[in-house]
Design a protein that fits this description.
The chain has 332 residues and is an alpha/beta fold. It has two domains: 1-76, no CATH class; 114-292, Rossmann fold (3-Layer(aba) Sandwich). Helices cover 31% and strands 14% of the residues. It has helices spanning 20-26, 59-65, 80-83, 87-96, 103-111, 116-130, 151-164, 198-209, 234-248, 260-269; strands at residues 40-44, 70-74, 135-140, 187-193, 217-221, 252-256, 274-276, 289-291, 316-318, 326-328. A six-stranded mixed beta sheet has the order 5-4-3-6-7-8, with helices on both faces. Strands 1-2 form a two-stranded parallel sheet. Helix 7 links the parallel strand 3 and strand 4 (187-193). Helix 5 crosses helix 10, helix 6 (116-130) crosses helix 9 and helix 7 (151-164) crosses helix 8 (198-209). The longest helix is centred in the middle third of the chain and has 15 residues, at 116-130. The two termini are 45 Å apart. 32% of the residues are buried. May be involved in cell wall biosynthesis. It is found in: Golgi apparatus, Golgi stack membrane. Its EC number is 2.4.1.-. This is Fucosyltransferase. GO terms for molecular function: galactoside 2-alpha-L-fucosyltransferase activity.
Length: 332
Amino acid sequence: MDFPLRNQFDNFSQVYPRTYGNMLKSGIINTSMMSPPPPFLYIYLAYDIDRYDGLFYCDQNQDQLRKVPWLVMKSNQYFVPSLFLLPSFKQELSKLFPDEETVFHHLGRYLFQPSNEAWGLITRFYRAYLSKADERIGIQVRVFDTKVTPFQTVVDQILSCTMKEKLLPDVLETRSSAASLSKNQSVKAVLVTSLYSEYYEHIKGVYWTKPTVSGEVIGVYQPSHEEHELYGNNMHSMKAWTEIYLLSMSNALITSSWSTFGYVAQSLGGLKPWILYRPLNGTAPDPPCVRAMSMEPCFHFPPSHGCKAEVNVGHVKHCEDVEWGLKLVKDH
């Protein structure tokens, strides 16, 4: 409560005059000298980072930054992969995370603790619908351009991926119930998360109206379908967090390209998902999905100017779903 900057946090934005980038731009400080160091610096590292703020990622600037008592950082990006490209951080990071692709897994499970109310939503849904299944399959659907991407294209892509990768069985082209008489049937629970109910309804209909060729019983469930993102609505956010956590409890996971919702679920669960490629011009891609290199999230907007380090080497690679993005992989 007595932290000296506590009452200033609401003012911290990209235009705040005392951001690291703005102070460099105005000449208050420079990259070669900062003596004496200011009592604090605000570092803006969001997706719309500019050239000056991006100098944070230059290794030669870290010597001066580490002399500053307090660094206040703001970002909506998972910028950890770029820290691994800074030589001055490498030794410390390798001690903290000897397995590079588990960084978010450890940080997320340590830092993201559900409230009692959220934990109640998670456990009640899990016990009611998922706990008794032999296998749990998570399908996270995020469509960014709904106006140009037909519903049928997306649902066909999802089913093509699940069957091609043998995550879900095909169905018999008959309504016969003979297959349901076999003994020792295994049960798969499919958890669908989406803002919309149509994907869940279609997949549920596929496995409700026809038997599977394998004789497996497939149950399909969706906790909520909010239709729109509601920023600042606590219950809406709690439902999203509940669904992320439930997805992380899957045995296998299918996620959507570019989706941070899916990234968090895969990382919390320690899962390498199958990522659905983004449809182009409303056409389903072939192949429909690709297996992720690691459980780590993708850093969508790494700095693209100044002291950019070489990537696609060792434990930092370009992402499967964002060709210019960066992600951590296990360094073999």
